[in-house]
Amino acid sequence: MESLGTRLVYANPWMTIREDPIRRADGTEGIYGVVDKPDYALVIPLDGERIRLVEQFRYPLGLRRWEFPQGTAPDRADADPLELARRELREETGLRAGKLVELGLLDVAPGMSSQRGRVFLATELTEGFHERELEEQDMRSAWFPRADFELMISKGEITDAQSIAAYTLLLLHEHSQP
Question: Could you tell me which of 153, 146, 166, 157 has the C-alpha nearest to residue 69?
């Protein structure tokens, strides 16, 4: 597939939307609409058999959802993934991690978005005060036993694809450890 150009359609501090005319391998032409967002960090705070989640109102869904702490740098900036993970954890939960291990990479919606995410396991945690952004002022944070988290997924109470995929990366990481 060959890109024939690009046109910025929309931009705000969190994302841009572009439209790219393309030429397929058979010579026919088409168009792609692409949402560009900076890469994000997702953090799984783990303390023994407890995990820490955040709950917030997700405007596009019109619902409050539980998920792992995650986010991007302000103003569509690129950021070091490890530092971004530390910042998101502190901002959303108040936790500080003594140890952060990268578990893997996730593509959010590769059919329409360029955004990718790095997943980190946070352990050796200490409590502190959160430093939430204005958009996160209604956010809640709580510890859950892992069994409850898994039940919430199976009952459709946790539906955030990134959180569910990140938990799979955690399980694979744990199975690979001696």
Answer: 166
